[in-house]
Sequence to fold (1251 residues):
Amino acid sequence: MTIAQVFDYQRPESLEQAVQMLAEHGGDVRVLAGGTDLVAWLRDEAVAPDLLVDIKQIEGLGEISDEGDAVSIGSLVTFTDVINSGLVAARLPLVSEMSATVASVGIRNRATLVGNICSAVPSCDAGPPLLVHGAIVHTFGRAGARQIPIDDWFLGPRETALAPGEIVTKVVIPVPPGGHGAAFVRLSRYEGEDLAQASVAIVAPADHRFRVAFGAVAATPMRARRIESLLEGKALDPTLVAEAIALVSEEISPISDIRASKEFRLRMSEVMLQRGLKAAVERLEGNGPSYGTNLM
Amino acid sequence: MRTDVSVTINGEPWLLAVESNDVLLETLRSKVGVKSPKIGCERGDCGTCTVLLDGHTVRSCLVLSVEVDGHEVVTLEGLDDEGLTELQQFFVDMNSFQCGFCAPGIVLAAAELLEENSRPSREEVQEAIGGNLCRCTGYDPIIDAVLAAADAGGRATQ
Amino acid sequence: MTTLRPFEKESTREFDYVGQRTVRVDGLEKVSGAARYVDDLDFGPDLLHAEIVESPHANALIKAIDTSAAEAVPGVTKVVTGADFPFKFGLYMKDRYVFAQDRVRFVGEQVAAVIARDPKVAKRAAKLIDVSYEELLPIFDPIEALKPDAELIHPDLGSYTHVPWFYPHEDTNVAHWRKTRKGDIEQGFAEADVVLEDEYTVPRYAHCAIEPHVIVGLYDQSGRLTMWSASQSPYTQRHLFAEALAPLGLTHKDVRVITPYVGGGFGGKAGVSMEIMGAAIATAVKGHPVKIRFTREQEFYNTYQRQGLVAHIKMGVKNDGTITAIEHIMNWDAGAYVEYGANVVNAAGLSATGPYRVPNVWIDSKCIYTNLPPGGPYRGFGYSEFMFGLESHVDRVAEAIGMDPVEFRRKNAIREGDILAYGAEMNPSGLIEAIDRTAAAIEWGKKETSDDPNKAIGKGFAVFWKAPAMPPNASSASFLKFNEDGSMNITVSGMELGQGYLTAMAQIAGEVLSVPPSKIRVETPDTDRNPYEWQTVASHVTWSCGNAVHAAAVEAREKIFDVVHRVHGYEEESLYLEDESVRSSTDPDFKLPLRDFVIEGLEAPDGTFKGGPIVGSGTFMPEFTSTSSDPETSQGGHPNVHYTVGAAGVVLEVDRETGRMKVKKVALAVDVGKAINPSLIEGQITGGIVQGLATVLYEDMRFSEKGKLMNANFTDYKIPTAHDIPDETIPIIIEVGQPDGPFGARGVGEHTMIPAAPIIGNAIKDALGIRITSMPITAEKVALSVMKEQASEGDET
Fold:
């Protein structure tokens, strides 16, 4: 099935040029990076833009850089780039672990991490890890640059805090001070390429100020703050973990859809939390399963 | 909107007039006459439209033709000027494929793997082709051939 | 029986090519990108594209269709609707129209088509077709459809044309009812020590060949209709096209079907489904080739689907393990049209005892119209569906009498000469060997435990059988010709679906004529040039077309011997072929290479030439089959040519918390009669197991309350990836020769997916103590079942 709808295409060479195109064009404009979601949506007519602005020619958006207490990932960085980055693996193993679970090689070679959070589907894989790391989304528009905390980014299914006319330039992901362990646990029907039925990301820093976020169990990826405050600063023991698991049903609001029932998502979120906490703490202590091990 | 796109396809320069809503897969098949990338699902799920874009596998059903301006595309037809790669020969010798419709994508995915990792584990082979659906073979004969090619020191594009 | 079985004669010597792991003759084309499928063929700038307009309703009357807005779109060549083609079609029962006439019966049914040179224009214009519907209440549940007051989905059922072995029930939704009765069922249950009954459900499934259906039609200025089709059935398509379009003056000789390589079939490309639209549309745009390529979505909802089944099984056994009676009531959700699917129901209705000796049998197999997409053939042809329940039930019955389930199967296994449910005799069978070797391969009886405390390991076992479901006169034919260098071309009309058919045919002909398969090209079908084949379905082509190719090769051999005899004087009985040469047992020095004379003939002493191009032709029809039987009992006929049997076992690891399952080991033994090419058979086993496991572990079709398929894509109707396969697959080939098969071969293609569902169900029971009676058995279903079990245990304590 061909793409039947008609739209224009521009390929700016600078950010300024890009935002000018976005601003000057009256209609629906979409930014095109990897296109792995957008091209499919164009075919399905789930979107109907008048103009696509392809940002792949813009210099400087494809970099992963060390910012000391954070790692910056440019908006043209693909999941493959993330997986291949020694810097990310060393400092943000959770982001590496998550990236390796996304779709398949042929998609990851093209799909960008920033595009993933811009598409903002409820099962968006990058959402929970960026949430637990407290990432900052950097945008640029005619009104200038903005920094949007990831906690404020996801507004609803396929809806974000990105304003019309703005482009995401990078996402800056703070590295927890001191050592940390982490775990990305993902439930899917298949071991190979498949969308997540549910996911959980956990950061276990040295001070045990745990961060926990879930994916695909609410309208957006979401932090589990009650679980976080319950666990804060404490050593994990079976009783505490059981208490945390008991909170899962209060934190998340999964639905039944084609991929899983509400009941299964809820129960598996409990299992994922339990297994993820265990792995994250063990990794913090240096004796956990290697990153990339499927805990489900 | 019609645009001229300058692209290298299987080593040859092409100047193609494309519409902004043309998809690379269709352009390759209908305007370039390259038929190995197949139309399977047109939403990136099956991998049979796989091509190498600047050396890396992508789903040509999810790439607009205008996007490849200035880039290099290689399809199965262009994998080796000389004939068959050693990897392909292993696929033939081991009766790896059945209907063959997934083969163009899987051969390229495996070639990309061997280019980057000459001694992959079985699991790494599974991951490399984990986005390429095959309904016939149960994958084992395909995975076995990739591992055999690696064992033989067969690199994808020598 | 004293007649010499042909395979025994052949098997008195070593084979050069049959039985060898020959490299596929199509392998090089397929890994190099050279292989051409229909969509790869070029038709030039005149090619038109058709976009199909479909019903959004599951059951509705068409009140009006306004095509004017679409027709006004610049670039639109033509718009067609049902009014243009008031023609019925169907393989076994003519219950479909090319396009819906006054009524639509499922979501996705074709109502109109827009034809344009640019597919984008066609797609845009198709949205402008305005169809007014009057919605009717749809029926999706076959049990609902059986109720006496159910609305009739086909009120005119009584007037439909169908094959004589179908029994439609007028004024009901039962399109066909196969009844098989043997012995005295009540007596059988009375003799039993234990009688167990339960219900098993199986949802609908999709074939998911990676190549979508594609059809290109050209109705040229001379009145020829040429169709390029991604099909398993070129001749059947030609016949159905000619039959349906006969009102336009088309005859069989005017219709030509060309079928290049096919990117997977699995039954989905058998018969005629969307292709009928291509044929009809071509006649509406005379002189221009026109293409329909189904989208992946259409592939799911408007080709064939595997039918859903609700099966009720009642089985009686004695304490010593003897089965006394089986009652098997199968209610099939056959969908809106059953022109092909009714034969699935028929096949199941004849064989739902499974491969067991059963003295008392009662089978009802009902083909029930519903407002879901048309059911049809799918690898396994009904057997995968009913064997899930039957083989689950067998485990339970064995458990009930305290007998090991493998021992139980061994005790009741059908043997050569046993009387089948419909009265015919069972063919030679390696079932016992299959059971024993499979059990050994999975170390049956040895309990295994997982290193992971969350996980349990269970073992599951099942047997299977299947016969080709064919009309009694389904036949095959072959032409063979030599070339100047002693190489050969063979034309047949079976389809290379991936199973390796072309290679197997080359091996058979090569064996008879001592020519290596690498020197034989077997051509894909073109009904103008290649001789007849019924269809490439039913796992019958190696057997049936193999016989035809064998016959063609033998005919060529006789011509070779005749000319050698005439020119060189050797008695024909002394001649034989070896290494592409004619040899004589009476003269060790005589060696005449085939290439020296198979085109140019042999020069006689007088300077004249004898012989000429060597060609052969062969046909095969199973002349012993018959569908004439008593409609109330199915006794009296011989509807099935033979059964292929086997067994499978699995070692399954299950995570108690997540329900996730890992197949640690799976073994499958199948009696192929004679393995023409063991490598290809292993391919069928490895691939078939994964396809079968997919139906139990992952897949199913989900419909909305309105009958719309919700997962019509590979995102949510996904098939297993390279990660989702067994850790170890053990293929076991058993060879108890089929007397009438080429070199003793019988079919194997479908069988390898049949036991997958029950071995998983049985292994889950072994691992967790939970019996699941509905497919699929997903991780989710297992996990929720464990939770439920734990909750009820909690209640009890």
